[in-house]
């Protein structure tokens, strides 16, 4: 019998404590999401919760709240290197394991016209750092060091290792 799954969105306050280290922030939010989901689903299901942020130096970039904020984020990332952090929590009953991964991404120089055109697609509005590497945002990426899937929001390699600890073999 194959693994059955269901995607559920939980409503938590994804607080952006900008004083917290990005890796600690994504771990904390992923644990809170897992706890909220467990409260709804009960102790039996295997729960996977994750959160992703983009960090440029000490500046943490979540999802933009406006087109202007998206333009500011893309301008900050233009022609520079940043880090993408994803924290994830796997939980079943009282057992819980949290991990994180970091990928380094370098953007080419972006013109104001490119930033405006990209924002007009709507793609950046629900993405940490205001870009989606799996979509048109890929046109901006000059270099990537680490897990591509982490930049999309879930470090698949790392998650597969943790799932083994819970008895889940992703290949069968």
Description:
The protein has 172 residues and is of the alpha+beta class. It has a single domain, classed as Maf protein (Alpha-Beta Complex). The chain has 5 helices and 5 strands; from the N terminus they run αββαββαβαα. It has a 5-stranded antiparallel beta sheet, with helices on both faces. Strand 3 and strand 4 form a beta hairpin. The radius of gyration is 17 Å and the shape is elongated. The termini are close together. The mean pLDDT is 91.
List keywords for this structure.
5-stranded antiparallel β-sheet; 5 helices; 172 residues; elongated; 32% helix; alpha+beta; Maf protein; single chain
**Quick check: average pLDDT?**
91
Count of individual beta strands: 5
Structural class: alpha+beta
Question: What kind of sheet is the major sheet?
Answer: 5 strands, antiparallel
CATH class: Alpha Beta
Low-confidence stretches: none
Proper CATH architecture: Alpha-Beta Complex
- Percent in strands: 25-35%
Radius of gyration: 17 Å
Dominant shape: elongated
Strand order of the largest sheet: 2-1-3-4-5
Remind me, CATH topology?
A: Maf protein
**What is the number of helices?**
5
What series of H and E elements makes up the topology?
HEEHEEHEHH
Helix content: 25-40%
Oligomer type = single chain
Number of domains: 1
């Amino acid at each position: 019998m194959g693994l059955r799954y269901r995607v559920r969105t939980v409503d938590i306050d994804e607080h952006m404590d900008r004083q917290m280290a990005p890796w600690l922030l994504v771990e904390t939010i992923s644990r809170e999401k897992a706890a909220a989901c467990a409260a709804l689903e009960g102790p039996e299901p295997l729960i996977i919760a994750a959160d992703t942020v983009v960090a440029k130096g000490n500046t943490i970039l979540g999802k933009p709240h406006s087109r202007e904020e998206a333009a500011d984020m893309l301008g900050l990332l233009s022609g520079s290197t940043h880090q993408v952090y994803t924290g994830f929590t796997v939980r079943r009953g009282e057992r819980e394991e949290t991990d994180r991964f970091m990928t380094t991404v370098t953007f080419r120089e972006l013109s104001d016209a490119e930033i405006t055109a990209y924002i007009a697609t709507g793609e950046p509005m629900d993405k940490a750092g205001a870009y989606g590497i799996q979509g048109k945002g890929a046109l901006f990426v000059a270099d990537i060091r680490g897990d591509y899937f982490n930049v999309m929001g879930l470090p698949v390699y790392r998650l597969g290792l943790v799932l083994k600890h819970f008895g889940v073999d992703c290949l069968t």
